[in-house]
Every structure is written in structure tokens, then in C-alpha cells.
Amino acid sequence: MEKEEKTKTKTEIQNQHQKTKKQAEEQFRVVISREANAELERLVARILDGHDAVTVSKSDIGNYIFCNLNKHISDADIQTIRVTHFDERKVLQGLMRRSSQEDEIPSDLKKIIRDFYGIGEKDKKRPSRRDAEP
């Protein structure tokens, strides 16, 4: 009889482990700022205020927000996020990657680079011997 109880315990432990593993595969982590966490805590407090029968966590609220965010975010919001997180180095890296694949740098980019270094289109050409001073 004692052996059966141990077997059940092992089986229960295995089942619990499988549930935990499956749950872990279905969960993802998002890192938020201190400010975002404070806002989330305020929202949880608002939801729970005066409602003793309600149990809600920051994760519950986060899931609700993420699942419904696409319905409420505008193209202007998308553009604001892009502007806020714009990285000039990534642009340059992309341009370098593209130029190495195409073996040609776009002419407008060439002009910008030359202007930045004070080299105009006419400076690009080598001076002729006629133009050189004696």
C-alpha cells in the first residue's frame, strides 16, 4: 500500500512538472520601465477599488492591453514609436549592406557624403596638368 502512495506521488509530480513545462512554453516575458510599472500598478488599483470580488494582477492587465492594443493604436502612434526609436547607425549599416550587395551607392547618398566632407562633384575629378600651377 505504501508503495502505491509513492507511485501516485511520483505520477502527480510528473503531471505537475508537465503542466508547469507547458505553461512555461506558453508564457513570454516583457521588460517594462519603472514608469510603465507604476502606471500598471495604478491601473490595477483602479480596477480593484471597491470591488472585493475581483482578483486581477499586473500580468492580467498586461495581457488584456497587449491583446487589445492593435484595435486602439493609430498610424500616428506607430510613427511616433518609429521616430522615438530611430537609430542612425542602423540606417548606415543597412545602406552599407545594400551598397555592398549592389556594388553602387545611390547618387543622392554620394552627394550627401561628399558635401559632408566638403568635396564637391567638381573636386572629384583630378586637375589637369594645364590647370596646375608651375
- Radius of gyration of CA atoms, rounded to a whole number: 31 Å
Low-confidence stretches: none
Q: What is the H/E string? A: HHHHHHH
Shape: elongated
The figure for the number of domains is 2
In helices, the fraction of residues equals 55-70%
Beta-strand share of residues: under 5%
Q: Kindly state the mean pLDDT as a whole number?
A: 82
Query: How many β-strand runs?
Result: 0
Q: Which terms summarize this structure?
A:
2 domains, mainly alpha, elongated, single chain, 134 residues
Provide structural commentary.
By secondary structure, the chain is an all-alpha fold. It has two domains: 2-84, no CATH class; 88-124, no CATH class. The protein is built from seven helices and no strands. The chain has helices at 2-25, 34-48, 58-72, 75-84, 88-102, 107-116, 121-124.
Which helices and strands appear, and what pairs or packs with what?
Layout: H1 2-25, H2 34-48, H3 58-72, H4 75-84, H5 88-102, H6 107-116, H7 121-124
Describe the structure concisely.
The protein has 134 residues and is mostly helical. The chain has helices spanning 2-25, 34-48, 58-72, 75-84, 88-102, 107-116, 121-124. The N and C termini lie far apart (112 Å).
